[in-house]
Amino acid sequence: MNSDLIIKNLSVNYQTDDGLVYALDQVDLLIKEGSSHGLVGETGAGKTTLAKSVMRLLPERTARVISGEVYYQGKDLLKEDMAAIRNIRGEQIAMVFQDPMTSLNPVLTVGEQIAEAIEVHGELSKSEVQQKVGEILEMVGIPADRAEEYPHQFSGGMKQRVVIAIALVCNPKVLIADEPTTALDVTIQAQVLETIKELRQKLNTSMLLITHDLGVVAQNCEHVSVMYAGEIVESASVKEIFSGMKHPYTKGLFNSIPKINVNVTRLIPISGLMPDPTQKPQGCKFADRCPQMMAICLKSKPELKEVSPEHHVRCYLYDSI
Amino acid sequence: MSRYIFKRSLMMILVILGVILVVYAIMDMSPIDPAKVILGDSATEETLAELRKEMGLDDPFMVRYFRYVLNLLKGDMGVSYRNKVSVATQIGDRLPNTILLASCGVLFSLIGIPIGVATAKRQYSTFDNVTMVITLFAAAAPAFWYGLIMVMIFSLNLRWFPSAGMGKGFVDLARSLVLPSITIGIRGAANNARTTRSSMLEVMRQDYVDTAKAKGLDDRIITSRHMLRNALIPVVTVVGLNFGVLLGGSVLTETVFSWPGVGRFVVESIKTQDIPSVLGCVVTLAIMFSIVNLLVDILYAFIDPRIKAQYKRSGVTKNE
Question: Measured between CB atoms, does B208 come within 8 Å of chain A?
């Protein structure tokens, strides 16, 4: 069966003391089987909410899915019951979390935590489970005999490798990596990403890579979607984004990272802040910060339009195309 | 680990010596004259002086203190002024009863843990709110009040359990344990429920719970393996402290239920100005409290491997 992950028209709100927070606004996303899709955006853009919606990990009391579907193998994950979701979690779709320091249980050995993921999805004998734990540890570059150790005996990068091992031990079809390297220092970042890449190639796993680092996307993804204030504002292949980005926000993002071949003394940040997530502006959410803002941008919201096959942008500047 | 225990035991001995010193000094400063307590008000000044000399009461304070400690090491706590029976024997007869009652009370108080888990899982529900109000009342009311109310309902009206004393034989003993155990355990149960609830709420927000969910684990396994084991650390502290307090502090409950334990013995001894008995009781309870504390600290190591590693480190740096 086709293992594309299709997110359609997904809107999610949080009910907080400050009012309704519009976290996701009609998000569409397609992650093709075996492919790698980057999701880029500032903190608070709704990237993690998107990931948690797919895994059905949104906080039950505050989060509400207002509309939308998440299709996987012909099923709408948002409508499945928890028993079915538990079968999908880990075995079909797995997730790597942002902070390896807190995403492992401090009172269980790393071996136990990996074994758990195997045991819940299959009937294997104890020795088979142990063997599998050893194999996956070796695959992520940790000696198998360290399975007996507790998380506090590992460094941050090693912990993230353990988290990756947990996520990939059941050969999932889709991996959602939520800023897997943000909490790690740069040299370790590269190693961890390399590990993910190798394993994905071996297991033919597709990936949704959430990050705010465009360099990471360039190296690891084929497609990229740029998210701003709960919306996808531009979506294209990595090649096309880097050669012909359209949306003013995407351009702003690229300008705020240093380029090695251009001699600039100062980076150009995007002025202003993301709009208040409890307010829903009538027009384009980026209008306030946009250097190319037009009258229409404040009046109505632009739709996501195709500028070339597989390249979509949500901006009135490209309305005529 | 064993080094850590050894080190802690040494410290415990120092603490107990300190406790004895303080209690001995307080007793020494009291206006009670042991010779008068033994011989009565009618004794002459000469016979009193003679007895004081015979008992070594005229010796300097530190001499008497070390004599007491040395005797204590031999298991000798002196002789009761009241009935001339060895204090150690009298405490030895009563201590098992107190330990039994305190243990049953602590066992009863453990029902607070599942209650705390259940309320945390349903935070802000009606069940949670009602339970928390009840536990607040339960923790606030004094133990002897529960004792009296329960005697009224379950002994005098319903006649299910005896109202006082300690039964002989397993069935009678168990029946006589029910009301006093609940009486001394109920406040602990309420505190355990509240501690477990807040600790669980803290743990439920941790990222590793999301990791566990993302593996596809069952909710029950996540609760027991991932949440409860982490949430239990502060609860163990509360239970341990409570056990220590119950070992020495069930004076009121033992009095209400005429339970032949150390608590009641202390009260009787104070009333009769029986200094060696009071001293013996306080020392015994201090030792018990220290041992329970040590056991709690050791228990931590089995719950949390990080603490175990810490113990190992502290043992090594100190002794090498």
Answer: yes
Whether residue A9 lies within 8 A of chain B, CB to CB, comes out as no
**Alpha-carbon span A190 to A177, nearest angstrom:** 15
Pairing of strands A36-40, A93-96: unpaired
Which residue's structure tokens are 């028993």? A83
Give the residue with greater pLDDT, A268 vs A57: A57
Closest CA in chain B for residue A96: B211
In tens, the pLDDT along A180-237 reads: 888 788 888 888 888 888 888 888 899 999 998 888 888 889 999 999 988 999 999 9
Q: Can you give the pLDDT at residue B129?
A: 93
- A123: helix, strand or coil: coil
End-to-end alpha-carbon separation of chain A, Å? 37
Answer yes or no: is pLDDT of A295 > 80: yes
A108 shares contact with chain B (CB less than 8 Å): yes
Q: What does the DSSP 8-state code read for residue A89?
A: B
A145: CB partners within 8 A, 6+ apart: none
C-alpha–C-alpha distance, residues B281 and B114, integer Å: 35
Provide DSSP, B71-140: HHHTT---B-TTT--BHHHHHHHHHHHHHHHHHHHHHHHTTHHHHHHHHHHTTTSHHHHHHHHHHHHHHH
What is the per-residue burial (b if ≥16 Cβ within 10 Å, else e) of B128-148? Answer: beebbeebeebbeeebeebbe
Helix (H) or strand (E) holding B194: helix B170-204
| Chain A residue with Cα closest to B303 | A107
Predicted confidence at residue B23, as pLDDT, reads 87
Task: Tell me: pLDDT of B319 over 50.
Answer: no
**How do beta strands A36-40 and A206-211 pair?**
parallel
For chain A, say whether B59 makes contact (Cβ under 8 Å): no
What tens digit of pLDDT does each residue of A45-70 get? 889 999 999 999 998 888 999 999 99
Of the ranges A112-126, A289-303, B157-171, the best mean pLDDT one: A112-126
Neighboring chain A residues of B226 at a CB cutoff of 8 Å: 105, 108
Inter-chain touch A105–B226, beta carbons under 8 Å: yes
| ipTM of the complex model | 0.86
Contacts across the A-B interface (CB distance below 8 Å)? 84
Those residues with Cβ within 8 angstroms of residue B318's Cβ, 6 or more apart along the chain or in another chain: B3, B7
- B201-228, pLDDT tens digit by residue? 999 989 999 999 999 898 899 998 899 9
Residue B16 CA neighbour count, 13 Å, CB half? 24
pTM of the model: 0.81
* CA–CA dist B220, A166 (Å, integer): 20
Task: Identify the CATH assignment for B82-319 out of 1.10.10.60, 3.40.50.300, 1.10.3720.10, 3.30.1330.10.
Answer: 1.10.3720.10
Per-domain residue ranges of chain B = 82-319
